[in-house]
């Protein structure tokens, strides 16, 4: 069922603020909690809340960047603020719901210390549309390698919830929360389909097990 608060494609703004944050992946329909405390990002959040669509563009700095104004990847994901709270020590606690991806058409002059871009949403318009068919992912293989990966790293998981998730929610949630490298997260963000994203993630998990686990990292087929 469509969310009545999500803007329709024609109502998307031409410009959005961006939040470059290494390792933070937002995908359409995913939920990303954020703890906002830097003054420039407090200003960014206040500006986003004042806009009708309440959008912030999550985007990753390039891996080699280590500056206050790093170059960023050209593709990000716009998220709508769906929850907001203030803290006594001057922070904002917000949750972004992934809406659709965008490409940076042009970076605009900074405002209040935060960055803004002219966003090209057109290549990703389908992110707003419900899929016509169920995704065809190798769910058994994904869950098998995920179980081995979490066991190897001593991470407990709520398997009842994982196994009860539909394929789209499962892939989106795992892609966002697994500790992949920024370039790997970017590859999943830019994947053209959910099936491709699931295949990339499964392969990355298998590679991580082989590289870090030796014989323990071999996943039974």
Commentary on this structure:
The chain is an alpha+beta fold and 221 residues long. The chain is built from 6 helices and 6 strands. The protein has a 5-stranded mixed β-barrel with strand order 1-3-4-5-6. A hairpin with a 5-residue loop joins strand 4 (75-86) and strand 5. 31% of the residues are buried.
Please outline what is shown here.
This protein has 221 residues and is α+β, with helices and mostly antiparallel strands. It contains six helices and six strands, in the order E-E-H-E-E-E-E-H-H-H-H-H. Strand 5 (92-111) and strand 6 (114-120) form a beta hairpin.
| Percent of residues in beta strands | 25-35%
What is the terminal separation in angstroms? 37 Å
Task: Give the overall silhouette.
Answer: globular
The spatial strand order of the largest sheet comes to 1-3-4-5-6
Element-by-element helix/strand order = EEHEEEEHHHHH
Biggest sheet overview: 5 strands, mixed, barrel
Supply Rg: 18 Å
Number of helical segments with 4 or more residues: 6
Fraction of helical residues: 25-40%
Q: Helix- and strand-based class? A: alpha+beta
- The residue-averaged pLDDT reads 90
Extended strand count: 6
Low-confidence region ranges = 214-221
